[in-house]
């Protein structure tokens, strides 16, 4: 058994080169009731060797954002804004060029490993197919060398290289999925709830593997999860999503110890952890994304809401401590909203939120 | 919290004690319970008369459920916690052992021997809340029909009385104004609301015991605490006893009075919640506690976690089931052939460059898959195989497997590794808990 090496890689003073940059990115789905604005003007950057955690309730748009970054969206959806990979705006590329980037430049790790592996193909064949898709002339020896190397990093013994997917346990399959993504060495990877189906001990193993990616591969990783504990342990920065928007983003340690946005704060309070001494919850449910509430989308559920919150949409502002949040109350607390009138600052009379509206 | 009974006079000796009093201290007594599932072999193996494999989902579990407590059954998937919970209600038949229900009004009843109508009657006293509220509700039944269904089945109420009782149950679980929900279908409700309806259906018969199988794990985190609070309130109001089945130690810590940690069909540690969390004794309990991701900005990714996953329940490891993953394993834990295979594979994962040569020396590993305390390996000559094993041992001399090796003898072209046999450890008293681990002998 290995010794305890608790090495949160020290926050990079000079972060690596920017790998991915989203500016006012929007993703819609067409429905009978009108467009669903699943991602509604999101702006962030992701650097080499950095893990950004994306957290939020179900239906907040976090999975859509993850898929939108890769371009894996269903029919009837559209993207708008800017999405730069190493400086190049991917939204301006032809579909064929976008397709070629997937796998090679943009990797994706899914939630259900078994549904992504072909039960009739050996693991070695999966690797061979993946590598040949992007390099037709690759030799058999090179395929084996590269595959075994990445399997080694994932802790899968070489004796299992020719086994079939069903011969592996759940945690091993997820390692295989990660290995299949990483064998192409993409600079950017989205991991969408990669541990949700796994047991707590195996989950911890997978989180450790993802955490170590930056050291082994310098990958920029977007880790989507609803588990705040995973974010706190594994991520450098965290983005909190609510109703299609990033409402707060910053250094994970900073956001968790000094949350600026009331939603972040309430989410942390509602999480049941080993230190929980009382039960807290957020009243109400996330809004319908066809017609989100005016002003700040969170105001109907927000304990800090002021009159301004129901009318004017807050702007993303940088706060003390370095995190960025879009919230009038946080602006006021940090002296960033001096232009608010007295009326606008008065607390918003709260409507009773019945169980009828809960999540 | 109001649920924690401070004084627990029962020390496991309550057997037969309170029969005359009518209200036994325990609601349920489980004694050496076994639930085994026969695996259907393929046609070929049946033709050849091969022995069908048996999964021991629950294997020799003894536990008491005390009146008014919340007992947590905690473990990973495959630990048998759900099967144990279902067996308590007679939803899966017991293969061995006894379950006794000490009814407050109807005296002692043997759940493990009930069949058919008798078992259905039992549901008026013992009820279940399922994990997935969406799957637990019939999509073509309105909430009124679903929640009132138990009353109809047991012919307890109809017409106006039925409607009144349904309304009262919905009110109890917070689905009010009731009129807004009566005619709704499950698909109209959010996850939290559906789980409230499932709970309403479970309490409408006024049961004594509620077995809740992961009641909040499918729900959004903003609403989990709310449902747990509802369950605590109901327990208080209706004098319920809970069995709370979960893989989530954090919620179990808040919710339970006592916790039983399960692994591969057995209870490995059981005791008061505070003691389990303050002084975890079983290495598995310790590992679980360490692995929980905590939203604490100063926590790091834990490094010293057990390797591997829960093994095949049809062929559990010899000796202590947890030994292949245990960080505190010693010589007497039950080392065996499959552990040697795992050790070799781990070695080759680390030393990929040596794989081809050494694999040729060791040969096929499949012979090690049959659980045995003797393991034959190697085809490249006894001396050379022995030398290779010695080299691997020297790489990591502290590997506990080697302490369980009694001898390595030449056998044909390879060697035979002989391990020290061991029994599966029994639950034994350690402080205020019971723990099944060789590190805690009598």
From TrEMBL, chain A:
Topology relative to the membrane: Peripheral membrane protein
For this protein, what is any one GO molecular function term? ATP binding
Occurrences of domain ABC transporter (ranges): 22-268
Spell out the InterPro entries in the cross-references.
AAA+_ATPase, ABC_Ni/Peptide_Import, ABC_transporter-like_ATP-bd, ABC_transporter-like_CS, Oligopep_ABC_C, P-loop_NTPase
Compartments, record wording: Cell membrane
Choose any GO biological process term that the UniProt entry carries and state it: peptide transport
Q: Does the keyword Cell inner membrane apply?
A: yes
Where, if anywhere, are coiled coils annotated?
Answer: none
- SUPFAM superfamilies, from UniProt? P-loop containing nucleoside triphosphate hydrolases
Task: Report the sequence similarity comment from the record.
Answer: Belongs to the ABC transporter superfamily.
Q: This chain belongs to which protein, by name?
A: ABC transporter ATP-binding protein
Name its species.
Nocardioides agariphilus
Record lineage: Bacteria, Bacillati, Actinomycetota, Actinomycetes, Propionibacteriales
């Amino acid at each position: 058994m290995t010794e305890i090496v608790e090495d949160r890689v020290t926050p990079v003073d000079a972060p690596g080169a920017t790998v991915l940059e989203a500016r006012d990115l929007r993703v819609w789905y067409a429905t009978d009731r009108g467009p669903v604005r699943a991602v509604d003007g999101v702006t962030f950057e992701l650097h080499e060797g950095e893990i950004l955690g994306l957290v939020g309730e179900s239906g907040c748009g976090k999975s859509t954002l993850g898929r939108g970054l890769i371009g894996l969206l269903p029919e009837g959806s559209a993207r708008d804004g800017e999405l730069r990979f190493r400086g190049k705006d991917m939204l301006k590329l032809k579909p064929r060029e976008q397709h070629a980037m997937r796998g090679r430049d943009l990797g994706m790790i899914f939630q259900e490993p078994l549904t992504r592996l072909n039960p009739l193909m050996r693991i070695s064949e999966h690797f061979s197919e993946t590598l040949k898709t992007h390099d037709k002339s690759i030799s058999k020896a090179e395929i084996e060398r590269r595959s075994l190397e990445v399997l080694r990093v994932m802790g899968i013994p070489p004796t299992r290289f020719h086994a079939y997917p069903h011969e592996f346990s759940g945690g091993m399959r997820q390692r295989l999925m990660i290995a299949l993504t990483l064998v192409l060495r993409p600079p950017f990877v989205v991991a969408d709830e990669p541990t949700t189906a796994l047991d707590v001990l195996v989950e911890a193993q997978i989180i450790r593997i993802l955490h170590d990616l930056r050291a082994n591969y310098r990958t920029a990783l977007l880790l989507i999860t609803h588990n705040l504990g995973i974010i706190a342990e594994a991520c450098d920065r965290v983005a909190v999503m609510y109703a299609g928007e990033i409402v707060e983003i910053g250094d994970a340690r900073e956001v968790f110890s000094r949350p600026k946005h009331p939603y972040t704060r309430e989410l942390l309070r509602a999480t049941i952890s080993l230190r929980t001494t009382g039960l807290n919850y957020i009243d109400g449910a996330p809004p319908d994304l066809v017609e989100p509430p005016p002003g700040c989308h969170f105001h109907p559920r927000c304990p800090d809401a002021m009159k301004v919150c129901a009318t004017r949409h807050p702007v993303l502002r940088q706060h003390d401590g370095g995190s960025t949040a879009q919230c009038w109350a946080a602006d006021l607390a940090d002296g960033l909203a001096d232009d608010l009138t007295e009326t606008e600052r008065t607390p918003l009379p709260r409507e009773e939120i019945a169980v009828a509206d809960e999540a | 919290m109001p649920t924690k009974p401070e004084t627990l006079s029962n020390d496991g000796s309550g057997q037969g004690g309170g029969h005359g009093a009518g209200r036994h201290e325990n609601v349920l007594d489980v004694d050496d319970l076994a639930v085994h599932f026969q695996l259907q072999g393929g046609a070929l193996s049946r033709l050849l008369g091969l022995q069908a494999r048996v999964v021991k989902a629950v294997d020799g579990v003894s536990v008491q459920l005390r009146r008014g407590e919340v007992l947590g059954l905690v473990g990973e998937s495959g630990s048998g916690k759900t099967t144990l919970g279902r067996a308590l209600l007679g939803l899966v038949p017991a293969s061995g052992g006894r379950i006794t229900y000490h009814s407050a009004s109807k005296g002692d009843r043997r759940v493990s021997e009930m069949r058919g109508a008798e078992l259905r009657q039992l549901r008026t006293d013992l009820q279940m809340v399922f994990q997935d509220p969406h799957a637990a509700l019939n999509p073509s039944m309105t909430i009124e029909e679903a929640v009132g269904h138990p009353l109809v089945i047991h012919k307890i109420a109809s017409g106006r009385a039925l409607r009144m009782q349904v309304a009262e149950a919905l009110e109890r679980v917070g689905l009010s104004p009731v009129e807004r929900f009566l005619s709704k279908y499950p698909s109209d409700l959010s996850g939290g609301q559906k789980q409230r309806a499932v709970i309403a259906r479970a309490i409408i018969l006024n049961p004594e015991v509620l077995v809740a199988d992961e009641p909040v794990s499918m729900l959004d985190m903003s609403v989990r605490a709310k449902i747990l609070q509802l369950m605590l309130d109901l327990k208080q109001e209706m004098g319920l006893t809970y069995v709370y089945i979960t893989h989530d130690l954090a919620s179990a810590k808040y919710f339970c009075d006592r916790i039983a940690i399960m692994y591969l069909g057995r209870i490995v540690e059981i005791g008061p919640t505070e003691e389990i969390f303050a002084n975890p004794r079983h290495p598995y309990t310790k590992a679980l506690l360490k692995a929980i991701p905590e939203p604490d900005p100063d926590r790091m990714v834990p490094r010293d976690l057990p390797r591997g996953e829960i093994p095949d329940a049809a062929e559990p490891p010899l000796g202590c089931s947890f030994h292949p993953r245990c960080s505190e394993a010693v010589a007497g834990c039950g080392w065996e052939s499959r552990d040697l295979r795992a050790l070799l594979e781990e070695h080759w994962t680390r030393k990929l460059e040596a794989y081809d040569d050494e694999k040729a020396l060791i040969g096929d590993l499949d012979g090690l898959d049959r659980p045995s305390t003797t393991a034959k390996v190697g085809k490249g000559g006894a001396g050379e195989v022995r030398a290779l094993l010695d080299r691997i041992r020297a790489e990591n001399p502290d590997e506990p497997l080697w302490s369980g090796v009694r001898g390595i003898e030449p056998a044909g072209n390879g060697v035979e590794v002989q391990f020290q046999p061991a029994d599966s450890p029994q639950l034994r008293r350690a402080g205020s808990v019971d723990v099944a681990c060789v590190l805690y002998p009598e």
